[in-house]
């Protein structure tokens, strides 16, 4: 009887194991036990890849034997790709080490660099010997014959490698979702690049336009026709979801302002990169090495005042600023050197807003401060100068010789100045209870809910041009430093056009814990002793004591 009962137990266990294996082969479930849900894709990401009807191939070049920080990023990349693959069987992955084969190493580096995949040169001197590793923290995603590049590392000139890795891990889902979005979703929204009031030529906006083009339909739009057919111009402008006004230099007429005002009243979004002081760095490169800043009146003061902001006709000087390259010395001894230039503030971002979260510093040139005024419009400060700022009135003479003089730091005491402001809400018309310059069909005094961003420097969107070729926006060719201008503008456009999916993914918080490198170096010997020698000592003492007690027990 007992034997039969034992046999039944064994049979039940075997049947149970078979059933568990069958169930586990058909049902798969992962549990994300992390506090910040880092391995759980947002619903926006899942929706983005839910309708893939062709293979989406990802080539990841972050492969090889890396320092610990990059190994963490490497692991996180694999984890996030696995999460995407769990949502669809159309995603295929290739992990490629482009520098593994010595025979093709140089060619691969050259080809990837030409494709825009800038390598990261990691310098390590922790062992007392300086070593350098070439790392490509990039990926390609291909779908239906189209390919986009995906940055895996968010670089910053002000942060250490650990902070950069931390920000990169936080941005991984956004980086892949953003790339997939370019490949999968058809462009539907339209952006008008305003012309006719002395705005920047396309060659000086080329990198910004190239960056935005994969997401939206772009078209130039001139206000010249306002003089003859203002209503027709307004009707055409209403077809666009966003207008971009980049560094206008010719004043706006009342007819043009009314067209722009009614565009806003009908729910149109706008991005203004405007200036209240006329001054450019190019104006200083003359025999005298100086120029005069003058007030630039675009006739927009009442326009912005009604909406809740004022761009003041002064310049912001900041001790925390970008350098300018100047020739120091005479004759053959002259050398190009980077010198701090207080007229180029490096604006800090608002860490609590989706547009500017985890954003690198944004470079300005001759920026003006923005005041916010009390009204019903919600205002969010996106970018500010540092607390060590001062204001300089216009007109004033600005000379390159000033860089050779040490600034009076005590005078830089006017606190952070607003350089970019987001306005959201229902706007009141500039022409409310005013005589209209022309008769408007269905004139509105109150807008639908809409958004506007005002930036007090047109140079934020301006890329350098060398040999008639536009350069990368936010990258200083002379100093080799990269700034956050391009990412800031792209995030701004995404936000204004209600691409909330990408913005929400970008706002996801992930906390990455790193070991303290300095503490590791200081306490290395102590922890080596605790983890290696101490267990052996304890084991030896236990063996000695065990043998001693055993011998004593059996010899007594």
Automatic annotation (TrEMBL):
Keywords: Membrane, Transmembrane, Transmembrane helix. This is Protein involved in gliding motility GldG. It comes from the Bacteria. Residues 189-491 form the ABC-type uncharacterised transport system domain. Residues 35-141 form the DUF7088 domain. The chain crosses the membrane at residues 529-549.
